[in-house]
Each structure stands twice: as structure tokens, then as C-alpha cells.
């Protein structure tokens, strides 16, 4: 029986991929303007970005324990193997909650083949892991084989991104008010990356295109043969910038495929409109 892949909405994969590969998505919670929404179900990313542009300061919450337990239990009852790949434990409590719920499920269904995997990632970087896991599941690979691939993929995955407005990082507690003000004044576009599941600043660059050029320089430093890789770009309601970065990558690298999608509410609530993120592997995992 094929392994069922479950992810939460923080993976930011396009709906077409989710549907084609039979990936089940569980929505994280977004709170904005006194209302609570389910990411990508009762609020679309563009709606959230418009709220943020109008002054809203949204917050996010993890997938509910009940939703996690009910979803995994559905497959456990049918003895269908399941891997739930979660948003980074450094950014959300979903992983820890899922582990606890899975322990309860296994008490009720001792034969259940269910595993929880911490992506230590976010947005389409995390989404690439889900994508590769689902491809293996479609081929009929075992739960052990898929988990082994995920560990290799997680170790190799690189995240580099830039934000358009430091104000949103200030709201999320990532930079000081002074840094946000001066950065906006000087048109500073910080380049950041993810390490051990958490976000860290790399350097400050003046101007949008220069920040993209620096992202490509870092990509050259961190990767080798890209011809067999799937590269991903996610954006905070800024498809023009995402496409610009895509063309810059195509000019510099041999690429197997480039996936582009909008950053959902789970990550976008903290990064803000105009964020552009690049995801690739330091070495190929797929043969």
C-alpha cells in the first residue's frame, strides 16, 4: 500500500502538485483583524498581504492537535502508512504536537505505520521535501526509504531570501525599530538564510536587484551540479520579482525544473509582502 504524505500549509506547494501527487495538506491558523482563518482554506495569501499593506499585523498558530490526530487516525484505521512532514520546529509548535498525537494514535492502533518528520524548513524549501517524498510514495517506495531520503534532502537543502520591507520583520521581533526605519530609509534589502530550522541574517544589500545578484552568488558558492535538481522560488505577492530571479537563475545555471508559488499565510504573516525566497540543494539527492 502506498505511503500517504501529509504536510501543513507552510509548505507553500502549488495546488496542482498537491492534487497530482495526492498530498494531504493541513492548514495552519492565521489570526488577523480580530478574526481567525485557516491558511489557504478560508483566507488566500493575496488577501492576507492586502491586509498587511493596510496596516494589519497578523499572527499565526499551529495546526490544532485534534486535526492532526483525526487526520492520521483516518489512515491508521485502514493500516495505510503515513508520513507527516511538518513546518520547522524552530518556527512552529506543530512538530512537537504531532509527535504527541502520534504516540496516542499508536497506543490505540499498535500496528500503525505513522511517522512525524521535522522538515526544519519553511515555504517551498520545506515544500521541495514534501514534493520529493510524494514522488517516491507514488513509485511505491517504503516508509523507511522515504524517511531516509528526507534526512539526506534536509541536510542538503539551502534557503536564501530577501525581504522588501524591514517593517514586517520588526513587527515579528526579528529586527529593532531603529534598524527597520534606517533600512527603509537607505533601501536596505537584507539577505537571510535558514540554519537548524531558524532564520538568521547574512548581510545587508542596497537595492532589490543587487540583493538578487547576491543570492545568485551565494547559490554558486553553495551548490554544484544543478541539472538534476528542482529549484524553487516563493514570493510574497510579487510574481514580477520571482520571475526576474527565475530568469537570472536560468542564465547562470542548468536547471531541471523551477517551481514558483506565492508564500502562504503561515510564513508570509511574518516576512511580509515583497519577500522573495530561493531554495536549492548543495548536492543532488535524486539520482
Automatic annotation (TrEMBL):
Organism: Fictibacillus aquaticus
Protein name per the record: Fatty acid-binding protein DegV
InterPro entries in UniProt: DegV, DegV_C, DegV_domain_contain
Entry function: May bind long-chain fatty acids, such as palmitate, and may play a role in lipid transport or fatty acid metabolism.
Regions crossing the membrane: 258-281
Keywords: Lipid-binding, Membrane, Transmembrane, Transmembrane helix
GO molecular function annotations of the record: lipid binding
